[in-house]
Design brief:
- Two copies of one chain form a homodimer.
- Chain A contains twelve helices and 27 strands.
- Chain A is α/β, with parallel strands linked by helices.
- Chain A has two domains: 170 residues, FAD/NAD(P)-binding domain, CATH 3.50.50.60; 201 residues, FAD/NAD(P)-binding domain (3-Layer(bba) Sandwich), CATH 3.50.50.
- A six-stranded mixed beta sheet of chain A has the order 5-2-1-9-21-20.
- In chain A, α2 runs parallel beside α10.
- At the A-B interface, α1, α4, β5, α6 and α12 of A face α1, α4, β5, α6 and α12 of B.
Chain lengths: 472, 472
């Protein structure tokens, strides 16, 4: 293995130098970027033209615009509109090699990353940007019945579930089963949960109008369950209240302070939140998990202390302790940032602007290290020191449905139609790749005028056996 | 079961009459349409406004524009561009109920269709339009290594295979494996095979340019294997020759008179076609099956004599013997049609115009039967009798790649750029749903100018284990 790895590294280095426009035969420092989400992509792009050989490793072949993933899950956009091939995005950056591969191990001491196919890659700098995944708070058995939404595969599975639920309601002769098919439960009222619930209500009331003969899709029940006292916790209470009101206007039943204690095929069990003792069983064929997020299991491969959510503690330079060559960024990093007062520290949230900022910052530190005199290592940097990473919060946005959204820009808070337009503009603007922007804009314009959602495709045929539903 | 079926039928009938604008309480004849491809859809639409209750049953929720399926498999179009929800397409036709369901049996005597979920539906008229599937000529074990292209799922699987082949070539350290990854074999040179091979060559030479660092995608080998002496057998020999020349110009190795005798993981074995005895092994990670088509297994449920390809023999009225109430149409039907001379009979080919024409014809026969005096049954009709179904052949078209196609309109044959424009126009015209047309046109315009293919999405992550390849 070691010999093979050595050979490969040598090959990599030769090939990338021969590709480089500099044409220098001296080995250039190798930068390994694990994960090409917002953070990894920003870091890679910030190293354009730098005298390094970058290898970007991702399990997928595409960079995913995750903020719009719920639109794929609800048939509003097709997958290629929000997913662009990584190697296409980076084709012009000659110091980058892209590998679609799975990382199986990280050896901090030997500075090597082991891949699932048996290869190993050495590095002088490592940027770990592997992101986050769902967390079921230790109840992993819920995953089967309440899928989450992190990858395109998740979105396809959820889209098929939602569309099949209406199909099954139409073909089922049993009224109880029909009701269960027409009940949708979304667990967790963060931005994804709120967007899912709002869109599901819209689909039931508008998109499917006149298309069924035996059921009325508008009779569908959409529940949004949240454990904390209000929806969209990250926003100020007034905006939470407005969002809840907008959701209710769309027909969503919003229940806050509601703890889920069980999920089965066709049923969600919740503790009644009104102070009385007891639980309630809600029959529902379709349950969406939007409650818990945990850092990627890849964080554990670094063999460093993790926080409760599985994130890796990093210092003000986004390095792990004693490893100035290893950066952890994005949702995987437990980073602190000075507040606007310049002194108090606050955790950096797991949002895409933070990941992008961390990516650019890590790249800047690598460039600084390259400029340092031979052999000199940049010292550790506390999070409150000058020059440490500082997260700039430009605000928060969440859409609720057609013409409804809430926005918090810090200095300004607003909701309703104007917030919705603002949300639309921001998402189109940040959507990567000019063509995608155009297509998405067109899709949305069409959806707006027609009330339709065009990506209503279930690729797999009908389940041969009907889904068994627990009888209430 | 019988009691349940009776109850359901009663319910269906009540509900559909209460939905009907006529509001008559008399039971209307029930028409059951199995399969909503080109044939089933045409039949259903031709019965708009007719005093019948139609139930359309399909395993999928969408009608698929199959002639463009290869474009989804080669990342040129996203699935929703060529797939529209059946119930959305038929929402305005009030005498139609759409069920997403799988048919498990047909009882000709009791006039009942049994569904996989246990329900049964009765009918007065039955239209079976279940289409065709792949045939491996008895070598079903080849299916794993050489997938075919009939459904969206097939297209997604193929797209992932093609894209992953290039990815694996980039990450593989083994030159032999790299070569196998960069070898693509298409078996069968009908329209689908020709289109696949041409597009694969284009992807390798144009789309992926500059995106790889360790391999040159343009060095990929694309082989098109055909057992018969020429490509596009359905076209005149001159057009076949032109198509073969255009394919070669794109970089496709065309081998006619070449019999495949074995397919393994990573290898295709062919009999050398040059008269010498022996076989040749072609290492190839990606093999596409475009050779054999067999009628849907649903044909067997009718318990009637089938032809060699599994198709159901029908008379000039498209009825099966002794069942004037059962029509079989489209790829599932072994139908005969008078030639333009009005006398000689020829088999109706398994193409979408034929399916559409059969669908409209079957609907016309049902309408005629409804107008007949109570109790009178339309007599069997030989294929050469006046009034029997007659297939109108408007010609054949096949595209080969960018700016290359061949067209045979009977009175006119042409190839090259003009044929390609004609192909484009015809496909856009027939693509169902205005929005899809617009999107596809835009996608194609973009692809034309940019040489790009935008749907390069592999939803599932990289294979944890590398594909094992038989060493040559």
């Amino acid at each position: 293995m070691a010999a093979l790895a050595g050979r490969l590294d040598g090959q990599n280095r030769r090939m990338s130098t021969s590709n480089s426009s500099k044409g220098s035969l001296a080995a250039r420092p190798r930068v390994l970027v694990i994960g090409c989400g917002f953070g990894g992509l920003a870091a890679t792009r910030a190293l354009v033209g730098a005298p390094v050989d970058i290898t970007v490793i991702d399990r997928s072949n595409h960079h995913l615009f995750q903020p719009l993933l719920y639109q794929v899950a609800t048939a509003g956009l097709s997958a290629p509109s929000i997913a662009a091939p990584i190697r296409h995005m980076l084709r012009g950056q000659r110091n980058v090699t892209v590998l679609m591969a799975e990382v199986k191990g990280i050896d901090r001491q030997q500075r090597q990353v082991h891949l699932a196919d048996g290869q190993s890659l050495g590095y002088e700098y490592l940027i770990v940007a592997a992101g986050a995944t769902h967390s079921y708070f230790g109840r992993d058995e819920w995953a089967t019945h309440a899928p989450g939404l992190k990858t395109l595969q998740d979105a396809f599975a959820l889209r098929a579930r939602v569309l099949k639920a209406f199909e099954q309601a139409e073909s089922s002769p049993d009224p109880a089963q029909q009701r269960a098919c027409l009940s949708f439960v979304v667990i967790g009222a963060g931005p994804t949960g709120v967007e899912m619930a709002g869109t599901l209500a819209e689909i039931a009331r508008h998109t499917l109008k006149n298309e069924f003969r035996r059921i009325d899709p508008a009779s569908a029940r959409v529940l949004l369950l949240e454990g904390s006292p209000r929806v969209l916790q990250a926003l100020p209470p007034e905006l939470s209240a407005k969002a809840a009101a907008q959701l209710r206007a769309l027909g969503v039943e919003v229940r806050t302070g509601c703890r889920v204690v069980g999920i089965d095929a066709g049923e969600v069990e919740v503790e009644t939140g009104d102070g009385t003792v007891g639980t309630e069983r809600i029959p529902a064929r379709t349950v969406v998990w939007a409650a818990g997020v945990a850092a990627s299991p890849l964080g554990r491969m670094l063999d460093m202390p993790l926080d409760r959510a599985g994130r890796v503690h990093v210092d003000g330079r986004l390095n792990i302790p004693r490893h100035p060559e290893v950066f952890v960024i994005g949702d995987l990093a437990a980073a602190q940032s000075r507040q606007s007062d310049g002194r108090t520290l606050k955790s950096v949230p797991g949002v895409s602007p933070a990941a992008k900022q961390m990516g650019a910052y890590a790249a800047s530190q690598i460039l600084q290290s390259l400029r340092a005199p031979q052999g000199q290592v940049l010292p550790p940097l506390p999070a409150d020191a000058p020059g440490a990473f500082r997260y700039r919060d430009y605000g928060a946005l969440a859409t609720i449905g057609r013409k409804a959204a809430v926005a918090d820009l810090g200095f300004l808070q607003f909701s309703g139609y104007f917030a919705w337009l603002f949300w639309l503009f921001v998402h189109i603007y940040f959507l990567i790749g000019f063509r995608n922007r155009l297509v998405v804009l067109m899709d949305w314009a069409w959806a707006y005028w027609s009330f339709q959602r065009y990506a209503r495709v279930v690729a797999e045929p009908v389940d041969a056996e009907p889904l068994s539903l627990t009888k209430p």
